[in-house]
Amino acid sequence: MAEYELTLFVDTSTAVSGGKWPKLYGFKAAGDNHPQSKPLVWFGTDEYATKTSIKWDTRCWVYVANPRRDKEPLTSYSPRELRCGQQFLVDSVKGTGEELKYEDPTHMAVINKSGKGLRTGLAGEVSVAGVPVETSPYCENPLVKGAMTTFKPVEKVILFIAQSSGEEAEIKKGIVVENALSSGVVIDAAAAVRDEEDMKVHFNEKKGIWRWPEGAAWARSIGQGDDLTNFIHS
Q1: CA-CA distance, 181 to 162, in Å (whole number)?
Q2: What SS3 state is found at 228?
Q3: What angle do CA 69, 71, 73 make, to 5 degrees?
Q4: Contact assessment for residue 213 and residue 191, using Cβ atoms and an 8 Å cutoff
């Protein structure tokens, strides 16, 4: 199991009046083969500071849930840790089932044997400023009865900080967000490890600009309105 740590630096003017910070949002990539897969808010928090550590590891959970109703957040689901080279045969909407070997050692699979339409996706743990966040979904796929979907873990994350008091400041964890509501940064943790570089990014609230070490191949920008699906499912 590999572990990753990202350090976020934020200028002091980012804190709004009264000492409350705008929300920091995180998303995570999930390579998969379903054309209708959607990114979910992995975490959203105002519990961070001018220097904040964000940690996660390579463990993956698959979850099973009932189909989505309107734009409700995903709050009721059954996570199960799964590794590449395994498949999970779901036999009920409660997320029970059987784990078997999967033929592709680089992917994991979920097969719906419950007889009902479901949704599934990947979930993971993360720690922000030393505070662990529960195992939270970061993508979702429709899973019709009898169907199979596959996943490949991808160690990319997206961060953005709310820059208004409107819609983007009220997003709940587990909500589908298809377009970036603010400028952000895409972090490829695997590339940073390969290049033996520490992952450090800076955010300037006044200018709305993200920065990272010059020439770093593991970070790139994402603009307001950009399609998150293109970044997340890669």
Answers
A1: 8
A2: helix
A3: 90
A4: no
On whether the CB atoms of residues 132 and 125 are closer than 8 A, the answer is yes
Three-state DSSP class for residue 88 = strand
How far apart (Å, rounded) are the C-alpha atoms in residues 114 and 93?
7
Beta-carbon neighbour count of residue 59 at 10 Å?
16
176: which DSSP letter?
Answer: B
Tokens standing for residue 197: 């570089």
Sequence-ordered alpha helix ranges (H) in the chain: 189-194, 228-232
166 C-beta neighbours (distance < 10 Å), count: 9
Task: Please report, to the nearest 10 degrees, the dihedral formed by the alpha carbons of residues 93, 95, 97, 101 taken in order.
Answer: 130
> How far is C-alpha 41 from the chain's CA centre?
6
Strand pairing category for 3-10 and 199-204 = parallel
**Per-residue pLDDT tens over the stretch 185-221:** 999 999 998 888 899 999 988 888 999 999 999 999 9
Question: pTM, whole model, 2 decimals?
Answer: 0.90
Q: What is the DSSP code (8-state) at residue 116?
A: S
